[in-house]
């Protein structure tokens, strides 16, 4: 199908030039708009399939304000803008465009970006349709389970969570029933605390009258509502129940949908989250499109005479085998914690693992990006095929092409044998490109071609080699900033950033510090044979007050040292690398005593701190590289990249 494109651009010359280029390339251009209002009118009239969207438009309108409407209508859009400052990029990124072109750009860049965007959009639509079908099938399967209503509805949260994130889910049924309310508070991955009837009201200290009034308000709603951030906070002013729920569970956003049973009675699903802007029109539209399945499910669940469908014998056997395999292989091997921030990451891993989608993992050093990549690979259909890990920061500049794509014998001085490159080694499996932000621009160009064509030539050969590889990349750099400053190619960024996963730093996962610390104590006491039994409450408080610039890797090495020092008994005091706690750091910042630092500055400070403690030694046992958990070559590269003075290095 020929794409029908709307151009939203307030500079007529630029817009007309775009129209000429697109028409020449075989696209249909349905119009040009100079403002959001004019664009809305043309969208309604011409029903475009794609929009090229400038950010700053006439009448002080912004393209980013049009983006949610386009997303709700499944219209793909690409930003075109001359403004690339960080705040603009962050605002644009939040609307989830399919691309971003910086003016002026070449015609070739436009066509490549459209090609990437069209493929990505089509793939997303296919995945969306498949996911909705799976969602409906799971709901229908739930309806035919045997057992009491509360047990069957108790299976609903784990089904819904994969499609709509929540920290609290309420199912409000017609008030004439004895069991007219179910609440599910998330406590871990696929773990929920269940509240029946008025139990949720009781723990929140809500009176019976207020609770009844609140439930009725959802049953009387017309359709669905979304309240994120400030809109949700406004809801708290008028409803004591919502305020008490907010206080009990620290909620900041809400989405609700009113549905109907065959007898005309209404029921409601109410989702709450601890994350702002959790809910979008896409979530609400998914529920609306699935409303027949939701209504049928609830009808059967609440109908005492609903039919019971026996599970086929072969399906039962497969389910038992799957349960056995699941018990033998942990789903998220090595990822530990129950914080809301981490559970969100686990949801994303579970969502993307089974697809062939490219994944870009971002986060600070030491947050566990490689562990996430390993989980995605193990949980994918490629799990039994190779996972090839490439540390891009450790690749010598003159050997990058040979390392990635291989070389023929005699291709260059020192090439005494044919070498198979990393992409060829990973064929049929997954390649993990760690620290992708460290690749030089010329290597980025060559990598882009491989990602586009899935073929390459070994150095010294003109024979193309086809590969079937899933790509997972990771970086601790802000790639949007790297793009805006010309150090990372925009087209490569959008090729990699099909499914982004951000790993939060440890200081944003305070609830997990105790779990991680106790796990590391057990690990190293077993490894060293020292009977260290645990960590005291006071020591845990010390750990939670520290700001962890080295994240989980720093915590692991710190606990290992404490186990070696303690030798036995309970760890009662932690020798932290810095004397000030995070609380003191915050006070100092407020008083202006300590300037705010970038993540790179904090990383450099931490590397210097480790180097000083190792007397400048990088390699070998007890060297800085071992403590930091990275190869010496990578640490040398980071030292050079961050501009750390060489006097700290003794080797």
Mind sketching the topology for me?
Blueprint: E1 4-8, H1 12-24, E2 28-33, H2 36-46, E3 50-54, H3 63-72, E4 76-81, H4 86-94, E5 100-102, H5 107-143, H6 149-153, H7 156-161, E6 168-172, E7 181-188, E8 191-196, H8 199-204, H9 208-219, E9 224-228, H10 230-238, H11 240-249, E10 253-260, E11 266-273, H12 281-289, H13 291-302, H14 313-328, H15 340-352, E12 359-362, H16 369-379, E13 387-391, H17 400-405, H18 422-425, E14 430-434, H19 441-453, E15 455-457, E16 464-466, E17 470-475, H20 479-484, H21 490-496, E18 499-502, H22 510-528, E19 532-535, H23 537-545, H24 551-566, E20 569-571, H25 582-590, H26 599-613, H27 624-628, H28 632-642
Parallel strand pairs: 1-2, 1-3, 3-4, 4-5, 12-17, 12-18, 13-14, 14-17, 19-20
Antiparallel strand pairs: 6-7, 6-11, 7-8, 9-10, 10-11, 15-16
Helix pairs in contact: 5-13, 10-11, 22-24
Task: Explain how this protein is built.
- This protein has 651 residues and is an alpha/beta fold.
- The chain folds into 4 domains: 4-126, Response regulator (Rossmann fold); 144-302, Beta-Lactamase; 340-502, Rossmann fold, CATH 3.40.50.300; 513-648, Orthogonal Bundle (Helicase, Ruva Protein, domain 3).
- Helix content is 47%, strand content 16%.
- The chain has a 6-stranded antiparallel beta sheet with strand order 8-7-6-11-10-9, sandwiched between helices.
- A hairpin with a 2-residue loop joins strand 7 and strand 8 (191-196).
- The radius of gyration is 28 Å and the shape is globular.
- The termini are far apart.
- 35% of the residues are buried.
